[in-house]
Fold each of these.
Amino acid sequence: MLTVGANAEKVERQLSARELACPDCGAPLKPWGWARPRTLRGGAAAVVVVRPRRTRCLGCGVSHVLLPVFALVRRADLAEVIGAALAAKASGRGVRPIAVELGRPVETVRGWLRRFGGRAELVRARFTVLLVDVGVDPVPPAPAATAFGDAVAAVFGASVAAASRWPDVGKVSPWRMACAASGGRLLAPSWP
Ligand SMILES: [Zn+2]
């Protein structure tokens, strides 16, 4: 699995120009069919259908599915929707009001919050390193009231830092950036 940009046409161009590299060995990837379509839920009743590209490495021969940057591994909701829940929790809101606001089952939202909360220190550390690495003049976020809040603040801080370094990235939401920086695995058991 490899996280790529949200623009499918651009990804196709990069693939045919052999510009996408295998995460295992660095050799170019070639197109190799398509994975099963996935339906992702956005805000309100919006639904996004993605048909992830399947690729094969010209070097080691391993296949990699390209996941657009708005999709987290094994999650049926857009990264922005999950991120909105995480940010709301960090600002002190409870799971029920968050679930009502986003129109999602309480158990689903609780699952996101639990997984993220369980790795809050890891997320904080990872994204603080990213913030310091990429920031032009990085300012680590002030401590929040909770470890959960610290982790969310680090994600936002890293996205501000990335925007200061690469102005194009500034158009990307913090949660897409977090998705890209974790290879889509922000809430997956296999990360980091
Ligand atoms: Zn390879």
Amino acid sequence: MTINRELFDQVMVPNYSPSAVIPVKGEGSRVWDQEGREYIDFAGGIAVNCLGHCHPALVAALKEQGEKIWHLSNVMTNEPALRLAKKLTDATFADKVYFANSGAEANEAALKLARRWALDKFGAEKSQIIAFNKGFHGRTFFTVTVGGQAAYSDGFGPKPGDVVHCDYNDLAAFEALISDKTCAVMMEPLQGEGGIVSPETEFAKGVRELCDKHNALLIFDEVQTGVGRTGELYAYQGLGVTPDILTTAKALGGGFPIGGMITTTEIAQHLKIGTHGSTYGGNPLACAVAEAAFDTVNTPEVLNGVKEKEALFRELLTAINDKYNVFSEIRGKGLLIGGVVTEQYAGKAKEFLTEGVKEGVMSLVAGANVVRFTPSLVISDADIREGMARFEKAVARVVENNA
Ligand SMILES: Cc1ncc(COP(=O)(O)O)c(C=O)c1O
């Protein structure tokens, strides 16, 4: 059997358009494809591989747990899940954890919990969910409807109801929407897919205050920002605004699928026995790997390292930009960095990614106008420099192609 990119078109549902290369091996921030070509990974599996590829601590945890017990279902609990839940609650505002398998599932649980909480405490009238334009919360029908991009939720028939949106960072618009009928507000404490947009502190604080005023729950979707990505364990800790419910996934498993929703005891009690669940959520293999990832990331060395690496990334990107003038702004926090392309390259962010792959560097986009970098949190300075040297060549090619 020939395993190549053509086979994808033959046997896979056509909802993705993966790049031409097929990586087969990874180590740290380096990846090799079928032909043995090497890439520096600034994409990290879309902000997932927080410790790069095949980190020894994660490999050891996976092997160890793989020889103990793989799966039980939630008919029984398991040691890795309990240890991970204890560590998550010790390190955050939360007292309780619900495990899922992805970001979307964690958000689905958060939204369902919020609706239950509101129904139990205030009645059926309080069901409105407010979210933000350009937000992204996953692809289940509820989460994609709450996400603020109609292009992703249109075309599937009637949507879950009572979901409204306003612009991020527009406190006046938000204030006009929220009322005592609002059940919950879902927001990213830095919009990722929507273009790497940080919240203004006044906006985030204002949202919190208005949620309190109207008895609405504030849900922070930290699927992309969580587990060290912004240089804090969770972004809310740097923002100084504490949510009522927080969702985490991506980097939580360092590459092994897992998601989690964390909240307070008071709120959690509304998800009573039988109200929600998952066969795999809290699976011992996933939790064992996640525990190793969490232990490794949640240290001053790694978290402070993120801030230092951000500075190096920005310095090198700025130097490239001084030469080629392709970005109007370099923004983001920690190792969630976006370069906003100038007018001349409007709609062409993906060209930088495509040329990058040709030069041996993997990056991402966040929408049509932002080139995004979400590398490993422990990427070496040498790999950052080498990857940026390759990215510079890619930028030169994009400039040449568009001259
Ligand atoms: C903020 C945010 N929430 C939710 C999701 C969905 O996560 P998953 O793809 O694991 O379902 C993503 C994925 O990009 C995300 O960035």
